[in-house]
Amino acid sequence: MENKSGAILFVILAMAIVLHEVRPGLAQILPHIPEIFPPGSPIDIVKCSSSLFNVQGCVQEIYNSIFSGQFANIEAACCKIFLAIDTNCWPRMFPLNPFFPPLLKNNCERIATTPSSTHK
């Protein structure tokens, strides 16, 4: 089950990267998968998650924490970006694990407020 949800998350993130690189109008030609990709959501996923791609390694750090349950390897810069994302984006970014974003938020609040500039 864990591998299946990992593959789905990878597809979602890959689509976000692709859609970030192409014109938004092209997103409308993608098939719509009910409940995971309701009409209009691929563009919303890009808007919601695009800031995570601006911090090198942030997406990978979050991906790793989803499957390991460990948050210690998430850098403060990544946490600050995640904390700035609107909570309405979370269901679209993490459709298969609605409990993960609040856990990440709680851990990121602690990591982002540590006195040192990097967390490890």
TrEMBL record:
Pfam families listed in its UniProt record: Prolamin_like
Protein name: Prolamin-like domain
One Gene Ontology biological process: regulation of double fertilization forming a zygote and endosperm
Domain Prolamin-like: 47-108
Keywords carried by this UniProt record: Signal
GO cellular component term of the entry, any: extracellular region
Phylogenetic classification of the source organism: Eukaryota, Viridiplantae, Streptophyta, Embryophyta, Tracheophyta
Domain of life: Eukaryota
Signal peptide from the UniProt entry: 1-27
